[in-house]
Amino acid sequence: MSNKRDTYKYHLKKGNKIIHRGITDDLDRRLREHQQEFPRSKIKQVGHRTTREKALEWEHKGGKGQSFRRVFLDTK
Question: Which of 1, 25, 37, 66 has a CA-to-CA distance to 10 between 20 and 30 Å?
Fold first, then answer.
């Protein structure tokens, strides 16, 4: 079990609507991947970086239960 906090939790948003919840170790790369299917979408980081194990728990609960951090990533 790793205690390394290297995983981000995020919501993918298009406008004000959350269209996907997920985890990643690279928010920029993940945004580029999502934008192939959802152009003009943004990623909003949820909480702080965490361990992969805790991030997977959050994801399995539906990605709910934590406030957003003010981190937006988008490409124009």
Answer: 1
